[in-house]
């Protein structure tokens, strides 16, 4: 009996669908009504949004940073190039013998200053003098024979051929005399220029072969200072440029550039250059170190404290200034350094340089400006001069 009602209920459920179920249709309409009510409620403005976050942020914005600025005016700055060099003699020559022979005398000593043509050494000249005397006798005999032949020809008893033969004999004899004199001259070793005997290699009584060194002669007037110019500085240095040379021995001399190379060294990429310095008194010694300074032009730059130089986020060197209350960053080149500061180019002719607080502000930031009352470079120099005058 119980199985039949269950079967009937199963059959009824199987025949029931969404379209035929009146309860399901009512649920659908109820859900749509609830969704429509939510949409109308949200659109009616009852849903309030939070106020913008910018309003309290703007109200709490900090005041502009305060910086101290100092007015700077660009000044002309002489530009120069400096390099280390070495003093070289004007001439440094090893004197050698032209002939062979025994050294008869050495009339000079090491360290002696000699004039041009001074005798450095004399080789034994006995044989050469005898050869010269014999050649002169032969020349005199040939001259007499020519005179006799000419006289006989004039009298009509001599021939023209005899005169020509005598004249040729005389010419040969004169050549022998000239050669003998040259040989005798080579036995005397002389100074080719004025200078100082830096070394002597022979002594009296020694035998010297042709080509053997006799002495080393050095001329230090004028003196030459050789130095190297890096390729990036070559353009500003030319022959004839004035130069100041400070020697390690303490002397300072004015000189002139006499040579600048036109081909860089393959190893160092530098150009050889030379400065000639007067040295009449011989006080500048060859071989000593020296510093060469050459004026290369003029730049307009600002003298600033090293503390005002900074780097921007890109790593470029520059100085921060204030223009109309806003921070500006100027890329600069540091062209020179002195005690107390640096010379920088790249700033306007007149600039308000931030001297305090530059590390806490950025380019484009508005700032409050306080002016530094400390005197500028030129004013400070004027105050020092005035103080010295008052004393």
From TrEMBL:
Q: Which residues form the CzcB-like barrel-sandwich hybrid domain?
A: 93-217
GO terms for cellular component: efflux pump complex
Annotated stretches, region: Disordered: 369-391
Q: Does the keyword Coiled coil apply?
A: yes
Cite the entry's keywords alphabetically. Answer: Coiled coil
Q: Which residues form a coiled coil?
A: 118-183
- Pfam families from the UniProt entry: Beta-barrel_RND_2 (PF25954), BSH_CzcB (PF25973)
Write out the biased-composition intervals (Basic and acidic residues).
369-383
GO MF annotation terms: efflux transmembrane transporter activity
Please state every residue range assigned to the domain named CusB-like beta-barrel. 225-296
Its family? Answer: Belongs to the membrane fusion protein (MFP) (TC 8.A.1) family.
Q: Which NCBIfam families match?
A: RND_mfp (TIGR01730)
What this protein is called in its record is Efflux RND transporter periplasmic adaptor subunit
Per the UniProt entry, what species is this protein from, by scientific name?
Psychromarinibacter sediminicola
């Amino acid at each position: 009996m119980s199985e039949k009602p269950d079967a009937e209920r199963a059959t009824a459920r199987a025949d029931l669908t969404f379209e035929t179920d009146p309860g399901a249709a009512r649920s659908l309409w109820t859900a749509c009504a609830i969704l429509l009510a939510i949409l109308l409620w949200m659109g009616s403005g009852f849903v309030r949004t939070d106020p913008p976050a910018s309003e309290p942020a703007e109200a709490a914005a900090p005041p502009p940073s305060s910086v101290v600025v100092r007015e700077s005016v660009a000044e002309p700055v002489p530009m120069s190039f400096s390099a280390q060099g070495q003093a070289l003699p004007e001439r440094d020559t090893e004197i050698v013998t032209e002939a062979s022979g025994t050294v008869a005398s050495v009339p000079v000593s090491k360290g002696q200053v000699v004039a041009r043509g001074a005798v450095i050494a004399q080789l034994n000249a006995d044989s050469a003098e005898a050869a010269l005397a014999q050649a002169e006798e032969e020349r005199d005999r040939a001259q007499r024979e020519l005179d006799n032949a000419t006289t006989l020809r004039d009298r009509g008893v001599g021939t023209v051929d005899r005169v020509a033969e005598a004249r040729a004999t005389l010419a040969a004899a004169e050549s022998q005399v000239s050669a003998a004199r040259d040989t005798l001259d080579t036995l005397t070793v002389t100074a080719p220029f004025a200078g100082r005997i830096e070394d002597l290699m022979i002594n009296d009584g020694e035998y010297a072969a042709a080509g053997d060194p006799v002495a080393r002669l050095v001329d230090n007037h004028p003196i030459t200072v050789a130095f190297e110019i890096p390729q990036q500085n070559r353009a500003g240095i030319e022959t004839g440029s004035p130069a100041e040379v400070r020697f390690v021995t303490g002397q300072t001399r004015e000189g002139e550039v006499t040579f600048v190379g036109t081909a860089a060294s393959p190893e160092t990429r530098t150009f050889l250059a030379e400065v000639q310095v007067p040295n009449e008194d011989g006080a500048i010694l060859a071989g000593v170190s020296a510093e060469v300074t050459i004026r290369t032009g003029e730049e307009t730059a600002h003298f600033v404290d090293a503390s005002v130089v900074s780097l921007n986020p890109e790593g470029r060197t520059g100085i921060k200034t204030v223009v109309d209350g806003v921070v500006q960053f100027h890329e600069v080149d540091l062209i020179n350094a002195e005690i107390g500061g640096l010379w920088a180019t790249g700033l306007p002719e007149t600039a308000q340089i931030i001297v305090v607080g530059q590390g806490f502000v950025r380019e484009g930031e508005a700032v409050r400006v306080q002016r530094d009352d400390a005197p500028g470079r030129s004013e400070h120099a004027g105050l020092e001069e005035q103080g010295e005058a008052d004393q």
